[in-house]
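This part of the workshop introduces the protein records we will be handling. Backbone structure tokens are a discrete shorthand for how the chain folds in space. Once this layout is familiar, the rest of the handout is easier to follow. The record below serves as our worked example for the rest of this section.
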Amino acid sequence: VEVKIEVVIPEKERSKEELSPNGKASPLIYKVNGTARHYHLEEHPIASNHYHNPKDMVEASVCHMKDLENGQMREVDLGCGKALLIKESGEFHAVGHKCPHYGAPLVKGVLSKGRVRCPWHGACFNIGTGDIEDFPGLDSLPRFQVKIEKEKVYIRASKQALQSQRRTKMMAKCISLSNYNLSSTNVLIIGAGAAGLVCAETLRQEGFSDRIVMCTMDRHLPYDRPKLRKWLFLQSMDSHAEQIALRPKEFFCTYDIEVLTEMQVAAVDIKSKIAVFKDGFNMEYNKLLIATGNTPKALSCKGKEMENVFNIRTPEDANRVVKLATSKNVVIVGASFLGMEVAAYLAERAHSVSLVELEEVPFKKFFGERVGRAVMKMFESNRVKFYMQTEVSELREQEGKLKEVVLKSGKVLRADVCVVGVGAVPATGFLKQSGINIDSKGFIVVNKMMQTNIPGVFAAGDAVTFPLALRNNKKVNVPHWQMAHMHGRIAALNMLAHGTEISTIPYLWTALFGKSIRYAGHGEGFDDVVIQGDLDELKFVAFYTKSDEVVAVASMNYDPIVSKVAEVLAAGRTIRKRDVENLIFRSFRTGDMSWLTGKGS
């Protein structure tokens, strides 16, 4: 039997690609020297699918039909690139073989019920369409048509598709941007992080052709914020925001998504549907998304405003820290994800790295004491010195620059640079008098459709609490990159009255000394941790349980078990404590994970 794969553009998408109601790129709006300015970039349309040129096609023999069993995936080489061949329920599918997020090999991921989940960060893709269904990441996979002929298997695909390994979904454009008043928009998005951008993109993908305006206090277009502290960004002292941009400038012009930079909203009048900016500018809206994220907590001690004391919030902050810390003494306050990731990166570059933390063990509340101690041991073997169960009482200067960090324990640490990572608070202060429901901690309260208590007002990202299905709809705050993406998508769908409820499984990761800890679920309030593997060797899986139920999982050097567990939880199945205590031993010896899906004994 012969299998062929070729690229096919559905008629619906082809008609969208050919239609350009606006006729030209929309302006980006930037805040320059206090004045909002419009300008047009040259048109460089970012087509969602360029793969229909017959001259661009390649065909190669791959395998026989019997080579793949149901539920199997195979990475196949076509000479000029690779594709992922999948067999499920007796049918063959073919898509790109790399996750568009960070390039993970999807053949090492998890295949379940019509989608494949990335082994690294949990993004999910429909195997029939290639569309992204869960995050992180913005792009979908290229999809190739599969044909079966005779007994040979061929794949026919576009060279460009094989090389790019990503596909931007078709999007609408604004029908007539020139007809709009500058102070009025249909959709206003406050915040230009992952939630805000995904909301804007989803609206366009769903055919929304009215005006969309995003505003941000940042000076940059939306960028990959986790890279500010993870190794991918900090590899270079000369990194710039453009290098970690989520989308290039041309993208916003092509799809008529306007951006106001360095613009801060000071208040929201929900009765008049007006956002009031700090500089006095007002903008009317029909639908509003609040995705302002959080604000880093500052130290409260003497000297906190001193030079060379940083919260890493922007690309400029990250670059300055790297430059100033090289061969110098660094003190990091707070064993948070940010603090630990920065410490791991600077350990090889700074003269010394000291980490100050109020708790007894890093990550104790999140990963548990045993995992926390294993991570702490890894840091200590890499020259990071911990000062636990103490706080900073004073920052001392010499000639206007940081010189010493004084701890409440009486210890004095030499310090040329201080990085503060002691947590954050929701950036919602401007909403206090708005009538929008905010809880005692400052989080915006939303329902499963990301709606606030005010009709037409939605909220998403780090600044919200929402009902998490995994924890019996308990209201939770999940300040993670993947969840912000999903919040933005759900908000957009419900702005269009789709009635879509959020049901995703939280998924996060951290990179430390070249090793990644992956985590899925929501373990807040866990009462026990079942650990399998070897903590000393940093090869383990930790299951976090509440009563008899597994509510979260973390692993190091055991891919793709976290993605596997995430798929089981996403399917609504319950994993019991006894399952991970009694049945996992065989899987660690043999690599068999069938017990998670109920296929094993």
